[in-house]
Amino acid sequence: MAFKHVNKGVKRVDAYEKVTGKAKFGADLEFADQLYAKVLRTEYPHARIINIETAEAEKMPGVRGVFTAADIKNNLFGVIVEDQQVLAADRVVLAGDGVAMVAAESEAEAAAALEKIKVEYEELEGIYELDEARKKDSLKIHPEKDDNQVIHHPLRKGDVEKGFAQADIILEREYSTQLIEHSYLEPEAVVVVPEDENHLVSIYGSIQNPYATRAAVATVLRAELAEVRVIQNHIGGSFGGKDEVVSAMAARAAVMALATKRPVKMVNSREESFTESYKRHPYQLKYKVGATKEGKLTAMEIEAAADSGAYACQTPFVTWRSVVQATGPYELDHVKTDTYGYYTNNPYTGAMRGYGSPQIIFAQESLMDELAEELGMSPVELRKKNIYRQDSITASGQKLSGHTVSLEEVMDKAMQAIDYQAKREKYSLAQPDDKKRGIGLSISFRGCSLGAEAVDAAASLIQINKDGSVAVYSGLAENGQGLKTIFSQIAAEVLGITLNEIDYMEVDTTFTPDSGSTVASRATLIGGNSIKNAAEKLRDRILDFAAQKFELAKDKLKLEAGFLYDQASNRLALFSDLTAEMINNGILLSAYGWYKGPPISWDEEKGCGNPYFTYVYGCQIAEVEVDTGTGELTVLNMAAAHDVGRAINPKNVKGQIYGGVMMGLGYSIMEEVEVEAGQIKGKNFHDYMIPTIKDMPDIEAVIVENPDPDGPFGAKSIGEPTLELASAAIANAVAHASGKRIRSLPLNLERVLIGRALSKGGCK
Amino acid sequence: MVEYQLLRATSLVEALEILAEKDNVECLAGGTDLLVDLHKQDSKFDQIDYVLDISSLKELKGINLGDKKAVIGSLTTHADLIESEEIQQKLPFIAEAAKSIGSTQIRNRATIGGNLVNAAACADSFSPLIALEAEVVLASRNGERKLSVRDFVKAPYKTALKKDELLKEIVFELPQGKYYSSYQKIGRRKALSISRISLTLLGEVKVDKVFKIQVVSGAATPSPVPFAEVNSYLLNKKLADIDPVEAGRLAAEEMVEITGERWSTPYKRPALAKLVERAVDDFLKEAANSG
Q1: Mean pLDDT, range A606-625, rounded to an integer
Q2: Do A442 and A429 touch, CB atoms closer than 8 A?
Q3: At A761, is the pLDDT very low, low, confident or very high (cuts 50, 70, 90)?
Q4: Do the Cβ atoms of A631 and B267 come within 8 Å?
């Protein structure tokens, strides 16, 4: 099939305004009579609030209002579990909980007033370790709950005892992963305008999920959804991070905007962002695997525990993805998996690109290399003996059919791209110098979109104007991933128009239909289908009209590059003339598109079913150099092969791969939010290490295309799979190079040299 | 809130007048430490009343390497050091140290004088200058005095600079004869990285013996110091008799003697030993090559 717009690396539709600096971000917005607000956050990870004294702050210059939990109609919100407070009422449960806020004429005046608020606390004992949180008799962080368990997902297949009895070798290993920050370039920002154009409040800002923010604000204000309007701005990165934390910020600003009857702007500094934003879950993982001496896996038993911090946030769903994918893409008759989330008084954890997969893949793909070594087998051979193939049955009992199971293909293509075999052999020879090289790989399968988490549907709206120009609206959001461009390409492809006829509109909850959150690498797949659906409705309407007008059968006509053609490629009309005529004839040239994913199923008690309707497959390979004298680790090259179904925009797919590999590299070798007794140490990028351009390896990005019957033009997912594989590939390469297996992330200087981490103190 | 008045000096004389007459003044050169600390509202600024911008003082700029004597103005940026052909040829380890600092943006602004006056334990400029036995020239309204770089730094973030003094320039004798150098650094990433450990080795060889040697720590000890044990082990030794591993071992022992067992010692002990071993190895190889 020859495409005109799809499957081509067209320029991003939002590139011009971004590279020229014209794009307006949340912090750029200014409204007449706007106030600025700041939040007083507690330093105590767990304390009772005895008293909050605001009188002095209220008298400070420029102050227009000082607020506490008492001023909030409904103080509790949360997407899955309503356990998060807008402002702490009686008790703070993490260092960074807001206790009061000030709206003032200037940011400096708001900050000065915060210093005058006196809060009296009674410090309480806290829980900072998962092991402590799990104890039966430990103190309860949310006293109204039975214990500190946020969630438990079991999965049972076959009989692991039987499976282990069949094994010639059984390996038991423990792994752990760390807390990390999203590190989006733009800290959180919102502006809330009260009583705006027939809405109670209008909310602008750096918002990943406008509908989730709308729901949270409506809950807090006890308002109807229609009274709350959310308009998304350009967003400077999110990676799953601008959901609950921005909803809380928007709710706070909304309370102040309504009380003061003036627009209220809030912009976090980087330090404030580090303090209050949720982060990636640290996991403790126990794996037990059995295999025959021929390398066939017989059983796997897994326990994964996640630190949820003080709030449930996304933990129930993050750990659900973990339970589905915990074995990795390997055929197993006997599986017993349990994933858990626990409350602690640590910073809370939520959605971050990968969403419960990077942790388990680090463990399970490290484990496969450890098993291969025990068996005296190559890592590739062991994997190929066990990987999912067409019609394989997964751990949850799902038959992988209806789409191409391409694990072997992604493995082979990644290996070819980086010359894996030759390097593996070369680096397996003795290396006399301190600097030793190694190469390692990891593979994954990943369920596309939400799966059994929630209703999986999206809507869009396309309006064709009289002059043939086209406005496209979607309920899913551009978060930097390239959604506007991809959706424009799909609309242009179906309507047979040029891309520059399309005006892509920002999400505005008043006009665009609720399509759920822009998460789970679902936008191209679910949202793309809804765009295609809307465009197809309009194309049919136009062709029906044209068929009548030109007295030709509809299937003898086609729209292409802004013209109507007949079968012999004669131009019959301009697209814009046709649409003008239709509108003059009173024909509606707007259409909603809707797409709901195919049926899925999940039995929460047994942990079985068809949790996702399709999957993507990926393989990443890392070539590293380990300085065995100093612990320095250099990632020299990486290959990343990902089956995306079909690349709507191959350049954009490669961009996603490069970015995901880099984020994965940071997760693997340097990033860690250090927390000591609930306190974050180091709240800016001079303490928190993320990779620089000099740490970036050469990356061979390989796009594998096996069009999916359920994807728009066959397209599936790419955003998250790119980030989940690097850590295991790098750890495996380090083990290959140095002979040392590191089972905890990150693989920093200390772990690489002496095998364990030391508490960092930086330079000072 | 830290509040201060910003003053700008247009000549060294004016700057020294201001320092003599006003109290509680912080000098602003490249600003890469000062502005960050001001942003953090560091409590050390609670007492300041003035920030004195000295960044345009021509008297403090320039690199001047004569046959024997060298003068480096305190406002010389790390980028200036890297780009200087004379530095690259005669003192490559200074260029290496400068290259390892921060990022392009930071190297374009940050000055060697600022790095010394800030005196972080991990400051990368100290070890090459101490190896050269360099001195700082401290100017005040009453005149100038010289102090060895080693004595200039008292403790982390503490120097011998008096409140009315400015660090004007750095002076040292250029090494003569056959000399070899090595600069080593370990950081947590490839750029914008604070040194975990760094060190400079500078040695002169006469015939087949070590005639002069300076192995100086950076970041490994609270203040940069020469490794006395390592230096005495190497000095006057025949090149053929030198065991780089032994030099490394001595350095690590000496470091622990200075710092005591700290949280970082289990890492720093083997890593420092390895860096010293490598520096000595480089030195021996270079000396052998130029025979």
Answers
A1: 97
A2: no
A3: very low
A4: yes
CA neighbours closer than 13 Å in the CB half-sphere of residue A663: 25
Contact A763 B194 (CB under 8 A): yes
Residues of chain B contacting A748 with CB distance shorter than 8 Å: 188
Q: Is the predicted ipTM greater than 0.90, yes or no? A: yes
pLDDT at residue B152 tops 90: yes
Q: Are B268 and B239 in a shared domain?
A: yes
A473 touches A647 (CB < 8 A): no
Structure tokens at A641: 């092969």
- Nearest by Cα to A513 from A597, A593, A599: A593
Q: Where are the domains of chain A?
A: 15-22+457-596, 31-124+188-267, 283-451+603-754
Nearest to A758 among B156, B263, B278 (CB): B263
Closest chain A residue by Cα to residue B198: A630
Let me know the angle formed at the C-alpha of B49 by B46 and B51, rounded to the nearest 5 degrees. 105
Strand ranges across the sheet with A264-267: A63-67, A98-104, A35-41, A264-267, A189-196, A199-205, A228-232
How does pLDDT run across B43-76, given as a tens digit for each residue?
888 889 999 999 999 999 999 999 999 999 999 9
Mean predicted confidence (pLDDT) in A40-52: 98
What is the domain-level CATH number for residue B154? 3.30.465.10
Give the HSE-up count for residue A79: Cα atoms under 13 Å, Cβ half-sphere: 24
For A590-610, the pLDDT digits (tens) are 999 999 999 999 999 999 999
From the CA atom positions of chain B, what is the Rg in Å? 19
Instruction: List the one residue out of A710, A448, A471 whose CA is nearest residue A592.
Output: A471
Cis peptide preceding A143, ω within 30 of 0:
no
- The closest CB to that of A689, out of B189, B266, B274, belongs to B189
For chain B, what percent of residues have pLDDT higher than 90?
88
Alpha helices in A620-740 (DSSP H): 650-669, 726-738
Using a CB-CB cut-off of 8 Å, the residues of chain A touching B191 are 692-695
pLDDT of residue B177: 87
Q: Is B66 left (phi over 0), alpha (psi -120 to 50) or beta?
A: beta
Query: Which residue shows structure tokens 């330093």?
Result: A43
Q: Which domain holds residue B147?
A: 58-173
Burial pattern A250-286, b for ≥16 Cβ within 10 A else e, equals bbbbbbbbbebebbbbbbbbeebbbbbbbbbbbbbbe
| B128 and B164 in a common domain | yes
CATH class of A283-451+603-754: alpha beta
Q: How many angstroms separate the CA atoms of A107 and B57, rounded?
A: 35
Residue A763 has pLDDT above 50, yes or no: no
CA proximity to B60, closest of B95, B11, B109, B107 = B11
Query: Tens digits of per-residue pLDDT, A398-416?
Result: 999 999 999 999 999 999 9
Which of B120, B186, B191 is closest, CB to CB, to A763?
A: B120
Architecture in CATH for domain A31-124+188-267: Alpha-Beta Complex (3.90)
Strand partners, A642: A618, A703
Total tally of structural domains belonging to chain B: 3
The residues pairing with A683 across neighbouring beta strands, listed in sequence order, are none
Give residue B291's pLDDT.
61
CB spacing of A762 vs B194 below 8 angstroms: yes
Spatial distance between the Cα atoms of B232 and A591, rounded to a whole number of angstroms: 85
What is the C-alpha separation between A351 and A172, in angstroms, rounded?
Answer: 29
Q: Are residues B194 and B234 both part of a single domain?
A: yes
Calculate helix-pair angle for A483-495, A528-550, nearest 10 degrees. Answer: 20
Residue A511: predicted pLDDT? 87
Question: What do you get for the CA distance between the two ends of chain B, in Å?
Answer: 62
DSSP conformation letters of A495-529? HT--GGGEEEPPPBTTTSPP---S-TT-IIIIIHH
